[in-house]
Amino acid sequence: MQRRTREAAVSRSISIADIARAANVSHSTVSRALRDSPLISAEVRARVQQIASEMGYVPNAIAQSLKERRTNTIGLVVTTIADPFYADVTKGVEETARPAGLSVFLSATYGDPMQELAAIETFRRRQVDGIIVISSRIEAHHRERLRRTRLPIVVVNSQASTGGHALTSVLIDDYAGAHLAMRHLLTIGHRRIAYIGVSNRPFSNERRHAAYIDALRAAGITPDPALTVVAQADPGPEADDVPLGAAALTRLLPLRPTAVFCYNDMLAIGALQSARAHGLSVPKHLSLVGFDDIATAQYVEPPLTTVAQPRLELGRRAMQMLHRLLAGQPVTSAVLKPDLTLRASTGPPDRNQ
Amino acid sequence: MQRRTREAAVSRSISIADIARAANVSHSTVSRALRDSPLISAEVRARVQQIASEMGYVPNAIAQSLKERRTNTIGLVVTTIADPFYADVTKGVEETARPAGLSVFLSATYGDPMQELAAIETFRRRQVDGIIVISSRIEAHHRERLRRTRLPIVVVNSQASTGGHALTSVLIDDYAGAHLAMRHLLTIGHRRIAYIGVSNRPFSNERRHAAYIDALRAAGITPDPALTVVAQADPGPEADDVPLGAAALTRLLPLRPTAVFCYNDMLAIGALQSARAHGLSVPKHLSLVGFDDIATAQYVEPPLTTVAQPRLELGRRAMQMLHRLLAGQPVTSAVLKPDLTLRASTGPPDRNQ
DNA sequence: GCGGGTAATGCAATCGTGTGCATCAATGCA
DNA sequence: TGCATTGATGCACACGATTGCATTACCCGC
Question: I need a labelling partner for B181 at 20 to 30 A (CA). Which of A98, A130, A155, B79 fits?
Fold first, then answer.
């Protein structure tokens, strides 16, 4: 195949060498001219830039990365992009990365720790400068392996049972958020409050449940273990919490709670459907509080009172922290405070019950 | 700074040269051994692979890409990842790309054609093998520029007023979907049907509206132009169609339609809220049909009858088509058929009206 | 007129892999 | 024993860009 060498391959995109030939200078001069090096005379610089533009030159970021040993690229690992929560965090990451000249690799893992490690391995091969992992399921022993890779990593809302230690992390304050929800329910008069949790996000579930227990105790109420239902979710997709919430509420109804605090909005929406199916009116017969404040929460009937997570902010902060790590600056983990969004799914308990 | 050169820099990750030194062979031998070349003797191959594994070798994909002139990387351009529609298509793309060894760059453009072109330019610099653009806003004259880059591009649901010509595309059949919705409304007895459209997705809006008009005419009904309201949306975010839908319905109510076909579910949800605010019961006083079948559609009250787009399938197909383009195989554009999902927001018109 | 300084450019190495070609040793065959 | 063949390995270049250092030409001052 002599053709390949003679005819400059199949028409590959032009390089500084091509420009150098056209301008009758060395490729070093072209490189310097394009980078506005003061070493190059004004005329030559202008001429080279002119020619480069005419030839439609596009710098090859791969070659630059190889030389600079920096790709200006980060990897983002999410459970699934189809979940609006992760989508919003992803948006926060992406919109912060882009202006900084960083491109984002996206990889989904569907809650499987092995796939998560595989995704990180792929990113490492691709020489990303850093990695952000949302709701990591990687446990402590693998953590150690990660730290040894020396790749800057920021974890968001880690779900490892050990919490976000050892790695830089940005977390939502699950305990404080749950406390807000419970204080609200207690303040408007509820005393028989149930909790619907979920099994496949162990860390934040534990924190929210702990706040639930503590808030009850602080109000002088002895928690009834029967009022806590932790839905057994598949370790995988976590696609649909709604039916889990519906089933959980069905189990709870015979115990006559006047309010339910749900681990998240999807469970709350499921509970809402179940309540309606059982002929109960929300909030008249039953108050419901969710967690996350996903967009759907405001569109269901009645609109959901919920603990709002600053999802975009989680993503932005994670990206900012990673950016500082890349610059070699010191970074401390952050904990963000959630807010309570009051809507129409909560009200005083029914006096006639 | 002699240290840098003497002490092998700051501890950079190990390369085939390091393995070569440890195994007392040349780096070519290492390269061949790791790639299972038949040129290498069995013992040497085993020894090299053993040492590589012990030293924790990770191949440098950047260097490979430079050499192979192929990055096994694609760029995905979306309007905004926070919209569940784009998130689902993205999921389809990602889950199809990963098993094929392709990594996905993600970039959001917020509906700005200039940002879209900038994103594509960045991807070109990064030498992606191909690009998928969802709901492109790039018009014909820029299209031509794109085609000349010779970069394989697949567009999904292009919104250019000229349609998806000239580039490989996968489109939803907007006309057929809208026709399904209209046939349903006409069949159950509606004759005074309104249309709520949107201005910033001109192509699909035009197709859906055309089907609306044609279906009316086919039923012997002369379309009343006053019953068509096209909400003027910002060219930018397209974040919230809900208030647009609410406002549009408020304008339509004095004209007494018995049913409204909405360009998408978000507009329909806004219309639903507005109807409720005006004391109208859905579907008793007003039937509503949306388009997309986003997750929220099934959780509002009443659940929304809507035209379901195969969102994941759109993403998967786009990725499969790009894959074939990369392999140099011939590819023809595809048009996917939507389905009608019947729920509770539609019913026969109110006799007493 | 010559040495020294400065401005502008080219040479060559480098980043980490992949591979055509040359080299070398061992073996087989005459 | 000598030569051809085969198998295994190393050398060197390529991919495209950046950059330290050498080189060249020019100008200035003594």
Answer: B79
Tokens of B285: 């006083």
Strands A339-341 and A305-308: antiparallel
Residue with tokens 């053709």: A3
Beta strands B334-336 and B168-172, pairing class:
parallel
SS3 B62: helix
- Which tens digit of pLDDT belongs to each residue from A17-31? 999 999 999 999 999
**pLDDT reported for residue A112:** 87
Cα B99 from Cα A209, distance rounded (Å): 38
Set out the domains of chain B in order of their start, with CATH numbers: 2-59 (1.10.260.40), 71-173+312-338 (3.40.50.2300), 174-308 (3.40.50.2300)
* Alpha-carbon distance values, A162 to A98, A127, A157 (Å): 32, 28, 12
Q: For residue A246, how many C-alpha atoms fall within 13 Å in the half-sphere facing its CB?
A: 12
Chain B: residue whose CA lies nearest to A63:
B66
Tokens read off for B318: 């786009």
For residue A84, whether the previous peptide bond is cis, meaning omega lies within 30 degrees of 0, is no
Question: Going along A91-178, which residue ranges are E strands?
Answer: 103-108, 130-134, 153-156, 168-172
Which site among A58, A62, A95, A147 would you substitute to test the B interface, given the most B Cβ atoms closer than 10 Å to its Cβ? A62
Chain A nearest-CA distance from B103, in A, is 7
Residue the block writes with tokens 């922290």 = A321
B126–A contact, CB cutoff 8 A: yes
Q: What is the mean pLDDT of residues B72-95?
A: 95
H or E, element range at A175: helix A174-187
Q: Which residues of A touch B345 (CB under 8 A)?
A: none
DSSP state for residue A79 in the 8-state scheme: S
| Separation of alpha carbons B269 and B240, rounded Å | 11
pLDDT digits (tens, 9 = 90+) for B169-188: 999 999 999 999 999 999 99
CA B18 – CA B26 distance, rounded (Å): 10
**Rounded Cα distance, B312 and B152, in Å:** 21
pLDDT exceeds cutoff 50 at A5: no
Q: Which of B65, B126, B150 sits opposite A103 (nearest CB)?
A: B126
* 8 A C-beta contact, residue A270 and residue A249: yes
**B11 to chain A: which residues are within 8 Å by CB?**
150
- Cα–Cα distance measured from residue A349 to residue B198, given in angstroms and rounded to the nearest whole number: 43
Own/partner contacts of B110-116, CB < 8 Å, gap of 24 or more, are: B110/B79, B110/B80, B110/B236, B110/B237, B110/B238, B111/B79, B111/B80, B111/B137, B111/B200, B111/B235, B111/B236, B111/B237, B111/B238, B112/B137, B112/B235, B112/B236, B113/B137, B113/B138, B113/B139, B113/B142, B116/B77
